[in-house]
Specification:
The chain is α/β, with parallel strands linked by helices. Helix content is 49%, strand content 14%. This is Response regulator with CheY-like receiver, AAA-type ATPase, and DNA-binding domains.
């Protein structure tokens, strides 16, 4: 991770790395030597350049947080260096220094893009203080930018979180198909993230700058769905006092996502097929056709092949939509994704709800991982939001989770593992490991306090932690 990067921790806090890499530019060797020593002693990582052109060569090879440059240098001076840096979109904070200090020169430097200006002669503390102030200002600026990005992601641009190999393969397939205009059928149980997948495909497509319009076909009465999709002409029905464009027209130049396509009436499926085939639509109550350029993504939690056999879904529409099919497995089949999703939701709700949950206990993690998640990712999201609201500490504990998750974990954790063996020795080890994990959770990982709760010596606890491979 370079100095310009950041990391989002499960606690939800945005941590920007310390800004320490600094390029010092001066044509005086003694000044370079002195500044290198002072900055190194204060924890910075200085690199020296004896001229503007040499500095430009260095910034092409690596990133710097700061550039501290003399103004008066032969050839390229400090002001010209700033201009070149900005032209190359170098984002480092530039601070200029000169023995020929004047208000005009300082204003000129700042107008060209420098952050600050130091007059020579200066005390070494003055340089360090200026760098620290600039560092703190930049750190706060970057955190604000990241928080805004996270809020945008929370409210309007959700991200697919996946750790399992299966989901990574699915995401790779989605990225491959994104570059084409062919229809895609996304299948999976309710709550698995089918709309997120559709947004991912749209975001990586050639029409990503166009609109993404989503509609849940099962949530709108069938009598209104046609008007919603295709629009209507003025006077088409009672109350139609003005013409209204439909979602196909609204999605022109972009993507139309038809969720729960399997619930659509057969008569409407014919019109959808025509729109998919040749981009032709007709508003309700209008004879003339309109051309739209729209990519269709559809989703269903039903078995459409069974629906075809039952006569409730057209086979020709199915084959037209099913050019590429992406199936999202239920969360219970990809348990490796549970904890990364939990950490993602903690980050989101810390920002959205103004909370500061920092951790989740081992017991809670294990309970969440073992749960069957009939509602999939949507259910998990709701559980985490509830747990964060109800917890009275900065941690999500087993007690923060709903009763059904706690009860199933208790039954599994204290019963099923033990029932797998008739050996007293093996059963004792299972229970001993479980108690150690609980003690560590209760003490926040403090091993000394955990040893007191377990009523064993500290060295004995350390040995057991090693024996059981507890981390």
């Amino acid at each position: 991770m370079n100095a310009n990067s950041y990391e989002l921790f499960p606690s939800g806090f945005c941590m920007v790395e310390q800004l320490r890499k600094i390029l010092v530019v001066d044509d005086e060797p003694n000044m370079l030597h002195m500044l290198h020593a002072v900055l190194t002693q204060d924890g910075f990582e200085p690199t020296c350049a004896e001229s503007g052109p040499q500095a430009l060569e260095l910034v092409e090879k690596e990133e710097f947080d700061f550039i501290l440059s003399d103004v008066r240098m032969p050839g390229m001076d400090g002001i010209q260096l700033v201009e070149n840096l900005r032209a190359r979109r170098v984002e480092a904070i530039v601070i200029l220094m000169s023995a020929y200090g004047s208000i005009d020169l300082a204003l000129e430097a700042i107008r060209k893009g420098a952050y600050d200006y130091i007059s020579k002669p200066f005390k070494t503390d003055e340089v360090v203080l200026t760098l620290r102030k600039a560092s703190e200002r930049e750190r706060l600026r970057r955190e604000v930018v990241m928080l805004k990005r996270r809020l945008l992601r929370t409210e309007g641009n959700p991200t697919i979180i996946a750790k399992s190999k299966g989901m990574h393969a699915i995401l790779e397939s989605a990225r491959q198909v994104a570059g084409f205009d062919s229809p895609v059928l996304i299948t999976g149980e309710s709550g698995t993230g089918k709309e997120l997948m559709a947004r991912e495909i749209h975001a990586r497509s050639r029409i990503a700058q166009g609109p993404f319009v989503a509609i849940n076909c099962g949530a709108i009465p069938r009598s209104l769905l046609e008007t919603e999709l295709f629009g209507h002409a003025k006077g088409a029905f009672t109350g139609a006092s003005a013409a209204k464009p439909g979602l196909f027209e609204e999605a022109h130049g972009g993507t139309l996502f038809l969720d729960e396509i399997g619930s659509m009436d057969m008569s409407l499926q014919v019109k959808i097929l025509r729109a998919v085939d040749n981009g032709e639509i007709r508003r309700v109550g209008q004879n003339s056709a309109r051309q739209v350029k729209v990519r269709i993504l559809a989703a269903t939690n039903e078995d459409l092949t069974a629906a075809i056999e039952q006569g409730t879904f057209r086979s020709d529409l199915y084959y037209r939509l099913n050019v590429v099919q992406i199936h999202i497995p239920p969360l219970r089949e990809r348990r490796e994704d549970v904890i990364p999703l939990v950490e993602h939701f903690i980050t989101i709700f810390n920002v959205k709800l103004g909370l500061s949950v920092k951790r989740i206990t081992r017991e809670a993690k294990e309970a969440l991982t073992r749960h069957t998640w009939k509602g999939n990712v949507r259910e998990l999201q709701n559980v985490i939001e509830r747990a964060m609201i109800l917890t009275e500490t900065d941690s999500i504990t087993l007690e923060s989770l709903p009763h059904d998750i706690r009860d199933s974990f208790s039954t599994y954790g204290e019963g099923n593992q033990v029932e797998e063996t008739l050996s007293l020795k093996k059963a004792a080890k299972v229970l001993e490991k479980d108690l150690i994990l609980r003690a560590l959770d209760r003490t926040g990982g403090n091993r000394s306090q955990a040893a007191l709760l377990l009523e064993i010596s500290y060295p004995s606890l350390l040995q057991r932690i090693k024996d059981y491979g507890i981390r």
